[in-house]
Amino acid sequence: MSRQIIRTDAAAQPPATYSQAVRAAGLIFVSGTGPFDAATGAIVGDTIQAQTGQCLRNISAILEAAGSSLDKIASATVILFDEDDFPGMNEEWLRWFPQDPPARQGAKLPVKMPGLKVSIAVIAEG
Predict the structure, then answer these.
(1) Domains plus CATH for the chain?
(2) 70-107 confidence digits (pLDDT tens)
(3) What is the H or E stretch that residue 31 is in?
(4) CA 33, CA 36: separation in Å to the nearest integer?
């Protein structure tokens, strides 16, 4: 199986330990993507809604660079620092996916970064 690394400057850059995304087997695997500004690397937003929106903007840019889009997401993993933010994350999620949302699972953020509330990983059609 061949794989292609996906990278774009239109989304925040990950650390050197992983790629923004990888195309393999006709799918795009987007790494956990935080609410970081692509230009500055700073966290965008103080609320879970604002941070969820920024995560999805970054994911959208990565998928676009791969020739895909948000409407081709099959599965998402939402990783929250605080489970009490789940309702607010869902509120923003529904703005982006008002109909036929992707499959989704949740997890607890295993690291503590000041101000970081959410990270989202997705798998989309290539």
Answers:
(1) 3-125 (3.30.1330.40)
(2) 999 999 999 999 999 999 999 999 999 999 999 999 99
(3) strand 27-33
(4) 8
